[in-house]
Every structure is written in structure tokens, then in C-alpha cells.
Amino acid sequence: ENESMHGRQIKKAIEERTFGGWEPTDSTIYTILKDLREKNLIRSIPTPDADEKTITYEITKDGKNTLEIMMKKEQEIRESMRSIITSTFGIKDELSSSELKELPSFTKMANKPEMETLQVLEFQRTFLKKRVEVLNHKLQKIEDKISKLDDKNRNEDVSKI
Fold first, then answer.
1. Distance CA 14, CA 74 (A)
2. pLDDT at residue 143, as a whole number
3. Shared-domain flag, residues 57 and 24
4. DSSP state of 43
5. Cα–Cα distance between 64 and 75 in angstroms, integer?
6. 11 with 89, same domain?
7. Of 110, 132, 133, 160, which has fewest CB within 10 angstroms of its CB?
């Protein structure tokens, strides 16, 4: 976000921040960089001590503004999805909105020390296990209702014979 990087560094940063979830090809990276340059979201800068082929990029003011807007939009989407999921499945929200905002995304965790990342991941695991527990309980109630209705329907069918 704040440091200048060349294409290979950007590719590596993407791979690290997505925990290997996205490993873009060189052609994909350079196509995206070209597009970002054309939109004035990044610019190339001179690279001391590098060969002629290495181009270093830095984010522009427009790029920073765009990134800030995108990060706000991402947070809004996260909040909306959380609201939809909790209301649809009737899951009581154990965490307040401010606490949920503190749950870092994978993109933010990649730059943290391993110990901090481990603590965050362990917290998220505990949080998700609790959610799974609540969902399993709700699923069991649904299964019980289905079973009772099936039994009732079978008994009614037998009594008609």
C-alpha cells in the first residue's frame, strides 16, 4: 500500500496475503499493472541498482483514494453479509460491529508477525467453531421436526388403510 515494489514483489505479496489462494501468472500481473498505470492509480518510478527490465511501481494519490474507497466498500459488504447471514439463519451475533471490524482480513494479516497471525487465526477458529455449534444445534432441531412430521404422515397414511 505505501511502499514501492516491482512486479515480482507484487506477485509475491499477493500470494502471501491470500495464503496461496491466488497465485497470479506473470502475464496477469503485468496486464493488471498496465491497466492501473493507464488509470493513473500507480506510476512507474526509477529503480536504482536494478536492471533495465525491472520497473518499480508506487501508488498515486488517485490510487490511494481509490484504495480507501474500495476498503470502505469491502467493509460495508462484510457488514451487509454478516447481517444477512445472522438474520437468515437466526444466529445470535456474539460480537458487536466494532469487534467484528477488528477481525482482520487475510490481506491485513500477511504483514503481521507469525505469532500475531497465529493468535488471530486461533481466535477466528474459536469464533467459527462457535458459529458451527449454533448452526448444528439449529440443524438438529430442524431434523427433529422433519422426523416428527414424517412419522405423523406415515401414521396418518396407515390409519387410512
1. 17
2. 94
3. yes
4. E
5. 17
6. yes
7. 160
Provide the residue type at 152 as one letter.
Answer: K
- Angle between the 7-17 and 26-38 helix axes, to the nearest 10 degrees? 110
Ranges of residues in the chain whose predicted pLDDT is under 70:
1-2, 50, 89-112, 161
What would the grid cell of residue 25 be?
501468472
Does residue 161 fall inside a structural domain? yes
Tell me the pLDDT tens digit for each residue of 19-52.
777 889 999 999 999 999 999 999 999 887 767 7
Whole-prediction pTM = 0.52
Residue 1 in contact with residue 67, Cβ under 8 Å? yes
CA angle 123, 124, 130 (to 5 degrees): 95
Contact 5, 56 (CB under 8 A): yes
Residue type, 61: K
Q: Which three cell numbers stand for residue 20?
A: 496461496
Are 128 and 78 in a shared domain?
Answer: no
Assign 3-class secondary structure to 90-149. Answer: CCCCCCCHHHHHCCCCHHHHCCCCHHHHHHHHHHHHHHHHHHHHHHHHHHHHHHHHHHHH
* Grid cell at residue 102: 477488528
Q: What is the domain extent for residue 86?
A: 5-93
- DSSP-derived letter for residue 41 is S
